[in-house]
Copper amine oxidase N-terminal domain-containing protein (Cohnella soli), 518 residues
Amino acid sequence: MRKWTLAMMACALMWAGTAQPLPQAAAAESISATIGNQETAVARAKQLKLIPENAEITEAKRIVHPNDYWRIYFMMPELDTEGHPTETGEVDLRSSDGELLSYRHTKWPVDLNGWGPAQEAFDLAKEEVGRKEATEIAKTFLENQPWQLNAEWMEDSYPESEYTTRTDSKGVHKIRFDRSIDGIRLSQPSFSAFVDRISGEVVSYEMSWAKTDFAHPKSMLTASAAARLLVDHAQPNLTNPFGDQRLLGYEMASFYSLDATKGTFPANLNIPIPTDKVIGKPTITKAYARMLLLSMYDIELQYVVTEVSTETWKAEPFYRMVVRPEVPRFYTGQAPIIDARTGEWKDYVGESLQQSVPGPSKQVIDAVVSTSKIGYPAAVAVEGKFSSLAVSPVVRNGKMLVPAKEIAGAVKGNLVWEAKGRKLTVTKEGKKLVMTVGSNKAYLNGKAIILQSAAQVVKGKTYIPAEAFRQAFGIEIGWQSASRFYTIGLGGKSPALTELAWGELRWNAQLAWLKSRG
């Protein structure tokens, strides 16, 4: 139980999220008062509403090295079922002026039954308070605390590993909040509330706050520039998970941190590249695995603590690429890997995932498959849905000719080639279109029609005019040159696509192309 409290106080990564910041708590009163003894130190802490009524002061001492400050320990008299105080805390105040330097406060439930590693799963049929309602309860609870802390709060919806929460009661929702400045979160543990699933009561909470100097640089990298640097920097590594030589996978780090002003990746704020010897030979290319793995990430501007002291912490802005909350994780928190022999998603012990990995975020899409970075020759979007294609269109006399076999397949038509007469026959839904290479006369169900251009053979591939599909089957075929996509509308014009939809199409086309090259 006590290890859990220490873990909350320790520096830990807090993932990105989209919740709006909570209203700012009441700021600490600006009173310049030298603290010279225990009585004035305790009085100052109580003035800031940091020590509960009836709390017992267990120790108040002055620390003069490396900085001069007072530390006050307190606890409430009520004990839990194991004989420990249910509520404890620690306050650090600067001796020269009484300014708050750090604050830690933990409250435990009296009844510890159901807390600890050995506990039964909660019966969801008994749940009266869902996570959404619990979050609102926790927000209100935090807003109503009397602590005079200079802080804004932002909900952290990113999950902790099952291993980290193994001693938490299954009968509560754990709701976490990070500090934030101007809507930018601080990637540091701050406040957690444990809300009972039946009663809705906040049965336990943990607070950790430190005076922090937040840097406000005059200029920073743009979000798009940072995203490009992050995805280029992130590279997969081959691994034998847990040293098991039977398993061979590609993995990537759980996060990457980019200095928002310098555009660098500080070694002390990034996970080092593994140097373990790997046994086995992959059959899946690194490029294909990398693109699959990149789909796991979000990119967010965060404040990261770069210096810790008893006086003031320092935090600087970093762009961080982190694993998204909806990505399934292993029990100990590791993100999925790509099987280097099959290309399948696996958990960290080589088992197939029970949940699917979501598609890539818009930030990653824009950075990886902008129109200037795609490598595939061409692809097809039928009614806005992706279909792979290996052949680009050709233009003759201002008219677009499309690859006959590929397009016929994309629209679920049947194509027959007669080499002797150099004739193509396309049938679809009871209609039959016959064309001859070099002739602009075609036959639809036996009736002659005149096309604006003729079918042609280019470098061994047969191409037919796009207009033939429109005249014969009512299928509109267009060409989006920037994304290298044929757009096909089965009932006329193709549906209009958003910028994000085009990005997702390019992503799927690039992924299919990389897979085919392996």
Observations:
- Residues 499-517 form the longest helix (19 residues).
- The CA atoms of residues 93 and 337 lie 47 Å apart.
